[in-house]
Write a structure and sequence with these properties.
By secondary structure, the protein is an alpha/beta fold. The protein has 13 helices and 21 strands. α1 packs antiparallel against α13, α3 crosses α5 and α5 packs parallel to α7.
Length: 419
């Protein structure tokens, strides 16, 4: 009798687990609604892809546009170059139309060295940061391959001030500059020199159903047209000190089929300094926007959180303007910087619109966004909550079924007492 009762209970659990799993998950706090905008890779059929590649403590984003053109924004540190190349090749891509190095830090451009070796790149966008050697303004000398060397010396003569021109002495950045000015690609059987441009506020790349708008850094002056002094397109941009690499970050908005993706590099909103006269790129960007630009930047679909979640980026002013539906933090697990910071996380939470508003590459690996049936959705490389829960309920039901069957078939009929 006891075994029969247990078998009945187990069969009841089996039925409940299959037909009422969603309600049980809600009751246990395991509901898949914690990831309401996630789809499986099989269901992820989108006219475009924006892939935030897991490169540890660094940034790299690969984009395939509706017309098939490609954008690579940053490449992580040098050891992640192969990872980035493998991700690009996995999409069947053999050339890159637009490569953007948001600023000179190695955790953003290191992997691009490998990319430039492995792929043909047609258009390259670099920061207004001079590559060279020397630890001080007096000893600094641009490297031979630095196409902006002549303009650098011209600016020194004109302004008599080196402190506002960003100088970078790192071997990684020097190698990057060397490679971009020797990069070529093949078009209609002819070898072409890749175009190199310094990005600036007002630069726009556009095509069918998409546009890429740069909002920072600002031009110094229209007079500083780099093409007059070099083979590089663009303009000299405002800097925040010779050694402030982050303050030269590109701030850009990709709008594709009406969906908006914002990138701010490592642009800071503060440094912890009490100086009232100090300026910061992120705040200058927000405060100098026109009304039309504010409208364009409102209700961002996905925000790649500035500076890996540092407390010195992602200000309240920025977040209250863009109100992102999703925020992605590209960050290394247990990194020594303490990213993402409690302060940045608190500010992001204050503008959240859904349970899955925040996604970290350190938790989920590469995160890919797109548009499925008119809705911005994503897939996660290392985690599929829905699949995991479905499997768990199937396992629970199967275990109950097997145990119930064992009990039923092991029950022996009671014998009548013999006289």
């Amino acid at each position: 009798m006891i075994k029969s009762s247990i078998a009945i209970v187990l069969f009841a659990i089996l039925i409940l687990s299959f037909f009422f799993s969603s309600k049980i998950e809600n009751a246990l706090g395991l509901s898949v609604n914690h990831f309401p905008n996630q789809v499986s890779s099989e269901d992820f059929i989108s006219p475009y892809f924006v892939e935030y590649i897991d490169v540890g403590q660094g940034n790299s984003t690969f984009v395939i546009l509706p017309d098939g053109k490609t954008i690579l924004i940053d490449g992580g540190n040098v050891p992640y170059g192969k990872t980035v190349c493998d991700k690009i090749r996995s999409k069947g891509v053999d050339a890159i139309d637009y490569l953007i190095a948001t600023h000179a830090d190695a955790d953003h451009i290191g992997g691009l060295l490998n990319v430039l070796d492995e792929f043909e790149v047609k258009n390259i966008f670099r920061p207004f940061q001079i590559a060279g050697s020397g630890t001080t303004a007096e000893t600094f000398v641009p490297i031979e391959q630095e196409d902006l060397a002549e303009f650098y010396y011209f600016m020194i003569q004109e302004t008599n001030n080196k402190s506002k021109i960003s100088r970078v002495s790192s071997g990684v950045y020097n190698s990057f500059i060397e490679k971009i000015y020797s990069e070529t690609y093949t078009a209609q059987g002819e070898v072409m020199q890749s175009a190199v441009c310094v990005f600036y506020d007002g630069l726009i790349i556009s095509g069918d159903d998409y546009s890429l708008d740069f909002f920072a850094p600002e031009k110094r002056t229209e007079m500083y047209n780099l093409k007059l002094y070099s083979n590089t397109y663009g303009f000299a941009t405002v800097g925040y000190g010779a050694n402030d690499s982050n303050g030269n970050s590109a701030i850009l908005l990709l709008e594709v089929l009406g969906d908006k993706y914002l990138f701010t590099g490592d642009a800071p909103c503060s440094s912890g300094s009490s100086s009232a006269s100090k300026h910061y790129e992120e705040l200058d960007f927000v405060e100098n926007l026109t009304e039309d630009e504010k409208l364009l930047l409102s209700n961002v679909s996905v925000y790649l959180v500035g500076h890996h979640g540092s407390k010195y980026s992602s200000s309240e002013k920025l977040l209250s303007l863009i109100k992102p539906k999703f925020s992605v933090i590209s960050v290394g697990k247990d990194n020594s910087y303490g990213h993402p910071s409690v302060e940045a996380l608190s500010r992001l939470e204050s503008v959240k619109t859904d349970d899955d508003y925040l996604l970290l590459t350190s938790s989920y690996g590469t995160i890919t966004f797109g548009n499925v049936s008119g809705k911005v959705v994503y897939t996660l490389e290392n985690f599929d909550e829905k699949e995991k829960l479905v499997i768990s309920w199937i396992l629970l039901g199967s275990v109950c079924y097997c145990f119930a069957a064992y009990l039923i078939f092991s029950i022996k009929p009671r014998r009548k007492n013999q006289i």
